[in-house]
Amino acid sequence: MSDSVSATLTVQERTLRYAEVQRLDDGPRLPGIGGQTFSFDLAGALLQQEADEEQTRQVQEALQEMLDGSEARDLRIGVHPPQSYSFFTPISSDVPVRDRQRQLLQQAALVTGVRSKKELHMTSETVRTTQDSDGEPFMWVHVLAIPDAADQRMARIVDALPVREYAWVPSSEAAARVTSRVEQTGGSAKEALRPYTLAVGQYATHTEYALSRNREWYHSHYSEEAHGAENRAYFAVGFLNRVGVPLDGIGRLFVYGTDVGLGAYEPFQTIFAQDPEILNPLQTVDSRIDHPPDEPSAFAPCIGAGMGDYLG
Predict the structure, then answer these.
(1) At 181, is the secondary structure helix, strand, or coil?
(2) Which of 78, 184, 201, 228 holds its CA 20 to 30 A away from the CA of 221?
């Protein structure tokens, strides 16, 4: 196994997508990529409190076959918002670390309705620091909470795989890492004056929004009601308004996910005065695969999950 190689996967309805990402000094390399569609609701089988043991076994066997001969040290699971509790919360920078954890647990209880922290596997990370209207510093912290039963189920699956450990990764953060790689190739003077990048993830179950500033993840949002171009644009504008980002601050606009077509994003072009681009993660890696997937943008969160450091 190699510390520089991660196996990654995402689940969306009945489809599992996986990749191997090798992190090298000159950029990421993609030794392998693929997917499998199951006869049952894959997300439900893996990520809910209760699961069918036979379905869990089928997933485990599929992953064993996919990772046979892999050099990956760890497995990273890109998890979409409806499959987890994913939220941002502000915390004063002056609050001691122990009190911060208490605040995060209290906020998680409000968001999830869970009474005991033992029911959740929760991770958090500081995404950015800023100041309030009085000039006092505070942090925007992202919290990702998975039902503990689902986390324990994944632990049992991983025990049978040739990897040492695993981590859950927010799909929007993973997608933002891909847009950052795209933007490292350079940009126009106009884009430099518009420091924000918006990536819109289109799925049958939901629409997710990943916002970056100067190639760093900034904030995220999702909606299960944003169906169709007009609705997706409406929720995008509402999201940006809530986080105080002007519409003319968006310098790049990307679209990823399933059944993506730029023709359906004409309202975005009008609102942001930007041409939407399909986010192709294969353009950001040194690909060593002979048969690329038919819909590369659906793999953006999967490949992006392997680009960051999520494990200690």
Answers:
(1) helix
(2) 184
